[in-house]
């Protein structure tokens, strides 16, 4: 049936992760009903108790409202019931890096596609791939479902609809998208196109924002966007490090280059390297798929390698600042002097580091591929004692990242002051706003040496040095 308004449409989401949950919750504001399905029983039971498993501004209130009004339903079984009732079924499961080779692991996507095929009712259902998948996947999913459906009364289409939400502002991004890309709908008045147009009509105010493309273009757009962002970060990091060698300030440089509207201000912030659940895995998957066509993406290969090297160097630089002999070294000099070696020359055995921030960026609780986790692991491997505070991280959520470090001196603390108690070096690894407003006099009293490494350039150098700290940041001169 042709649906006229979003409020006539029933939707199911396979996967209640960052993408599936945020999309379900936001669509439930407008759709007739949204089923949010996940095989993780614990996650679903927490959601039914209105416990939101991820930290995302605005999510909790919307979830509560839509769940209580029964427009949003959480299921960990009986998925067939949801599929039968849905006009549109989204696949939003994870596509992590396959161990060892960098390829996207499509096993979750294919497994969901197979089970959907078996559940499809008579009549028409639209299947939408929202997960980030390599070019060619939609076509494979269509073949797979076609091969598995039993009845000739089952009709379906597969379209690609990659997600561009940013963790930390995911709800806002979903409600006000820069663009919505829909791949593989075919001609203007096809049922799939009409359904997708109707579904997104409450969010897309301007026709230019809704882009209809082929499957392959949609899949490529998602990877190309993430690869571009990763490149911009790596580019800024390289310029920042060179700035330090020539006594220039990266903040001044990026402010000026960003004013060129061909460049823009976004993603020109230097830091400890890019991380998170998307950029590293997506850029690796893109490069890996190109290799299958005997095509080398040299720029992107170098971005991946540069980022790995950077995370290690940042860890070594932080480690080196625990020693008086290295205290004059800013990151630029450090990198310059250490470009051939992978091990720090400084002995930090037993030295205490206070780490502020563990998530890959602020306003999220996601620790996946966070550069901060890498830095802490490096410090622990070198024998340091490490105390960490992150406003969204509890001790139980870090265990799996430090499984190889059981018995190592790692503490997850409840506040910045406890984490920095007796620290030789304080390192800011995530740009949480609350770190701007710390009581520096109190910190000055609790630490054992007065050294701050701000890998996010969050603080005002002169304010911190006035408080009696040696202040190091990225791409700016050190302040003593
Ligand atoms: P996630 O790991 O947070 O969530 C995936 C969920 O799928 C998990 O809860 C898992 O239990 C569930 N799942 C696995 N198999 C299932 C099955 N057979 N049936 C039902 N549920 C199942 O992942 P995410 O971060 O939401 O990412 C999902 C996809 O979206 C990935 O491809 C990712 O690259 C892409 N993406 C993520 C973001 C982001 O910011 N996190 C942004 C854009 C795109």
UniProtKB/TrEMBL annotation:
Catalytic activity: UDP-alpha-D-glucose + 2 NAD(+) + H2O = UDP-alpha-D-glucuronate + 2 NADH + 3 H(+)
MF annotations from Gene Ontology: NAD binding; UDP-glucose 6-dehydrogenase activity
Active-site residues (renumbered): 278 (nucleophile)
Biochemical pathway: Nucleotide-sugar biosynthesis; UDP-alpha-D-glucuronate biosynthesis; UDP-alpha-D-glucuronate from UDP-alpha-D-glucose: step 1/1
Binding site for substrate: 222, 267-271, 275, 361
UniProt EC number: 1.1.1.22
UniProt: NAD(+) binding residues: 38, 43, 95, 132, 281, 368
GO annotation terms (biological process): polysaccharide biosynthetic process
The keyword NAD is annotated on this UniProt entry: yes
Keyword entries, A-Z: NAD, Oxidoreductase
Positions in coiled-coil regions: none
Ranges for domain UDP-glucose/GDP-mannose dehydrogenase C-terminal: 354-461
Family: Belongs to the UDP-glucose/GDP-mannose dehydrogenase family.
Protein name: UDP-glucose 6-dehydrogenase
Native source organism of the sequence: Galdieria yellowstonensis
């Amino acid at each position: 049936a042709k649906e006229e308004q979003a409020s006539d449409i029933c939707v199911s989401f396979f996967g209640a992760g960052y993408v599936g949950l945020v999309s379900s919750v936001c669509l439930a504001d407008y759709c007739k009903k949204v089923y949010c399905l996940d095989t993780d029983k614990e996650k679903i039971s927490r959601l039914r108790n209105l416990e939101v498993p991820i930290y995302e501004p605005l999510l909790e209130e919307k979830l509560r409202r839509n769940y209580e009004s029964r427009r949003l339903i959480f299921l960990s079984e009986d998925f067939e019931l949801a599929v039968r009732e849905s006009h549109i079924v989204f696949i939003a499961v994870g596509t992590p890096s396959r161990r060892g080779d960098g390829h996207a692991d499509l096993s979750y996507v294919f497994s969901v596609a197979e089970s959907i095929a078996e559940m499809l009712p008579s009549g028409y259902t639209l299947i939408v791939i929202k997960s980030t998948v390599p070019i060619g996947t939609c076509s494979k999913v269509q073949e797979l479902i076609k091969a598995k459906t039993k009845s000739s009364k089952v009709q379906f289409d597969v379209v690609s609809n990659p997600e561009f939400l940013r963790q930390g502002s995911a709800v806002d991004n979903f409600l006000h998208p820069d663009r919505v890309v829909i791949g593989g709908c075919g001609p203007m008045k096809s049922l799939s196109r009409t359904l997708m147009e109707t579904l997104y009509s409450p969010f897309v105010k301007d026709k230019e924002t809704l882009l209809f493309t082929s499957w392959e273009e949609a899949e490529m757009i998602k990877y190309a966007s993430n690869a571009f962002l990763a490149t911009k970060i790596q580019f800024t990091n390289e310029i920042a490090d060179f700035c330090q060698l020539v006594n220039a300030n990266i903040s001044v440089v990026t402010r000026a280059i960003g004013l060129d509207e061909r460049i823009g201000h976004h993603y020109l912030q230097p830091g400890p390297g890019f991380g998170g659940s998307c950029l590293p895995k997506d850029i690796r998957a893109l490069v890996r798929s190109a290799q299958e066509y005997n095509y080398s993406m040299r720029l992107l290969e170098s971005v991946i390698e540069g980022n790995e090297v950077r995370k290690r160097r940042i860890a070594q630089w932080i480690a080196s600042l625990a020693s008086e002999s290295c205290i004059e070294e800013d990151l630029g000099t450090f990198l310059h002097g250490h470009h051939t070696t992978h091990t720090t020359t400084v002995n930090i055995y037993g030295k205490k580091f206070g780490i502020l921030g563990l998530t890959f960026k602020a306003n999220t609780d996601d620790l996946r591929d966070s550069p901060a986790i890498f830095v802490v692991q490096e410090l622990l491997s070198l024998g340091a004692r490490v105390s960490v505070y992150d406003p969204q991280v509890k001790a139980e959520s870090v265990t799996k990242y430090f499984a190889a470090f059981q018995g190592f001196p790692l503490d997850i603390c409840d506040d910045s002051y406890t984490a920095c108690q007796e620290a030789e070096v304080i390192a800011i690894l995530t740009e949480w706003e609350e770190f701007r407003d710390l009581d520096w006099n109190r910190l000055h009293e609790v630490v054992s040496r007065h050294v701050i490494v701000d890998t996010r350039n969050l603080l005002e150098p002169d304010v911190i040095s006035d408080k009696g700290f040696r202040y190091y940041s990225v791409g700016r001169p050190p302040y003593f």
